[in-house]
Amino acid sequence: MPHPIRFDDADPVLGRVRALALAFPDAAEKISHGHPAFYTTKVFAYYGGSVKVDGVYRQHEHSVLVLVDPDERAALLAEQRCYVPAYLGASGWVGVDLTGDTDWDEVRELLDASYRRTAGPRRVARLDSRRP
């Protein structure tokens, strides 16, 4: 049985995340467990997540899940807008809620960090060659 779709393709927040994520070398999008997932060989970001509280999953529909280094993860989790996502949290992923006052430069930096951890050295070299 396929997972239900848990996003609205017309969501403007998803549109911003999508534009940022797909700007990385060889980045593509697929649906994974009902959520948009951005990947090269491995997934580097998901849009939307959830937290299990008292046996019930609470959705974070407007959030991005990224895989950052442990020190950065600890700093992010000290912030109220961040959470340990169900299922992926045990593997080091962190969720960041996106609101009206989201710092989109920071989101790009988080996506960049996650991409660098998953994309492989050739793609990271291509990314670095684009930078002035």
Automatic annotation (TrEMBL):
Species assigned in the record: Plantactinospora siamensis
Record has DNA-binding as a keyword: yes
Keyword terms, alphabetized: DNA-binding
SUPFAM superfamilies in UniProt: YjbR-like
Domain of life, source organism: Bacteria
One GO molecular-function entry: DNA binding
Protein name per its UniProtKB record: MmcQ/YjbR family DNA-binding protein
Key word Metal-binding present: no
